[in-house]
């Protein structure tokens, strides 16, 4: 009998974390490595947020809090949803977790029974299917191909809903593609969901503020108020305020679900870090100018990377609506051989050879459920991005 749980055997470690770790190992060995695999802003947390955390320590706010967040932070989240999304919630409908990932995990663990289905458009954030599997559910993957802007259609959604469907996960703008669902696309999906009252919606809005050009962010409960009582809207401070390491996420939804999530959290991690909660409070209630400053920088970087990658032989890189990723196609490169002798049989082989031969770390598309592609995170300096893209171009030019 195996010592380890059979449930654990259903899931795999995060590929993005694995690739980032491999890049760090090579760098420690003295290799010239450029890691474009991690999904976090390269900016410092804004000063007023850091000062709020220091003040919280000095005032002794270092004890346990309510299991799923302080009343002050919950109210700030309510105010944020009302101010930015036109959604009204009470503090009893808010859950504060140790990062957005815990909000998603708690929701799935609290609701899924064996055999329940969860619809996940691909490409997807790598953790969605594995969290569903850990909770005993079945991921139902729906391809959102490049030709359709990496978005699923209403017809695709309608076709995969069954009596066992419990959730559909929507992530806009998306990790890894940066694709966003505008009002018309979102309305088409919510119209389908209104016809299936047993299906709940898990909306991952973590990249809400990182949108470009004339794209306007919308969230499902905002587009269709009739869905609000079966939508969990997840967000957090990690991407918008450069607070990835602070580990604060939040969710808003029906009180029945929020209570169930709190029950689960009370027996797992208990409350999120008290200091991080005070920092998040400062982020949501303090000056918001950082958001526009960082958004403009990311848009410039997006344009730099899209233009550079489209100049690489065999790479096609669409222009994303948001986040800080691009998800180019390498369809034309499959079957070629690299200058170092590696056969590019798939996107994993491409990413492996690229790292070994040029020192550029990217994440292969199969990790996100849609091949042949790769993901680049452009959350780093212009100079580093230009160097990385030049290496990628040289690699592609060397393929035969």
From TrEMBL:
Top-level taxon of origin: Bacteria
Group of enzyme by EC: transferase
One matching Pfam family: Aminotran_1_2
Coiled coil: none
EC assignment: 2.6.1.-
Recorded catalytic activity of this chain's protein: L-aspartate + 2-oxoglutarate = oxaloacetate + L-glutamate
Occurrences of domain Aminotransferase class I/classII large (ranges): 32-392
Transferase in keyword set: yes
Keywords for the protein's UniProt record, in alphabetical order: Aminotransferase, Pyridoxal phosphate, Transferase
Cofactor: pyridoxal 5'-phosphate
GO molecular function, one term: transaminase activity
Matching PROSITE patterns: AA_TRANSFER_CLASS_1
Family stated for the protein in its record: Belongs to the class-I pyridoxal-phosphate-dependent aminotransferase family.
Name the record gives this protein: Aminotransferase
Species per Swiss-Prot/TrEMBL record: Paracoccus mangrovi
């Amino acid at each position: 009998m195996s010592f380890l749980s059979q449930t654990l055997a259903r899931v795999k470690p995060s590929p993005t974390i694995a690739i980032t770790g491999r890049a760090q190992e090579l760098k420690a060995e003295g290799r010239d490595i450029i890691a474009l695999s991690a999904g976090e802003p390269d900016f410092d947390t804004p000063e007023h947020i850091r000062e709020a955390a220091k003040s919280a320590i000095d005032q002794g706010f270092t004890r346990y809090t309510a299991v799923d967040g302080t009343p002050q932070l919950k109210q700030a989240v309510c105010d944020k949803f009302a101010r930015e999304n036109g959604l009204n919630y009470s503090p009893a409908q808010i859950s504060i977790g140790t990062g957005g990932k815990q909000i998603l995990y708690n929701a799935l663990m609290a609701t899924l029974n064996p055999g329940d289905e969860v619809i996940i458009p691909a490409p997807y954030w790598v953790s969605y299917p594995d969290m569903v599997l850990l909770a005993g559910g079945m991921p139902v993957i729906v391809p959102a191909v490049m030709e359709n802007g990496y978005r699923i259609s209403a017809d695709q959604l309608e076709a995969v809903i069954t009596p066992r469907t419990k959730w559909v996960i929507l992530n806009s703008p998306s990790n890894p593609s940066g694709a966003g669902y505008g009002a018309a696309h979102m309305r088409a999906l919510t119209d389908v969901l209104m016809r299936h009252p047993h299906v709940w919606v898990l909306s991952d809005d973590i990249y809400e503020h990182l949108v470009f050009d004339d794209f306007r962010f919308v969230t499902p409960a905002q587009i269709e108020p009739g869905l609000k009582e079966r939508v969990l809207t997840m967000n957090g401070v990690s991407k918008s305020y450069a607070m990835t390491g602070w580990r604060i996420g939040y969710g808003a939804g029906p009180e029945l679900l929020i209570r169930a999530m709190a029950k689960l959290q009370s027996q797992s991690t208990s409350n999120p870090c008290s200091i991080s909660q005070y920092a998040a409070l400062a982020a949501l209630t303090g000056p918001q100018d950082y958001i526009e400053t960082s958004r403009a920088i990311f848009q410039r970087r997006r344009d730099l990377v899209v233009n550079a990658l489209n100049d690489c032989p065999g790479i096609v890189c669409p222009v994303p609506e948001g986040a800080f990723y691009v998800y180019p196609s390498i369809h034309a490169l499959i079957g070629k051989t690299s200058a170092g002798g590696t056969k590019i049989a798939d996107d994993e082989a491409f990413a492996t050879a690229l790292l070994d031969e040029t020192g550029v770390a990217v994440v292969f598309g199969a990790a996100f459920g849609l091949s042949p592609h790769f993901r680049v995170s452009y959350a780093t300096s212009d100079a580093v991005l230009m160097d990385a893209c030049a290496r990628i171009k040289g690699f592609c030019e060397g393929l035969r």
